[in-house]
């Protein structure tokens, strides 16, 4: 995996147009996968974001 495939919390917040609170709720519930790099750096794989959006679209159909 390339490092540019990993998104920061602010990047994902902007893409989904949600608050930090909402994003961390999605992560805690397991709806959106993420990884912790080092002690405090949380990253969201771009594939996990794409999977989440795909699931939302399928549920809306």
TrEMBL record:
Source superkingdom: Bacteria
Helix-turn-helix domain boundaries: 6-55
Pfam annotation, one family: HTH_17
Molecular function terms from GO: DNA binding
InterPro entries: HTH_17, SinI_DNA-bd
NCBIfam families noted in UniProt: excise
Protein name: Helix-turn-helix domain-containing protein
Organism: Streptosporangium carneum
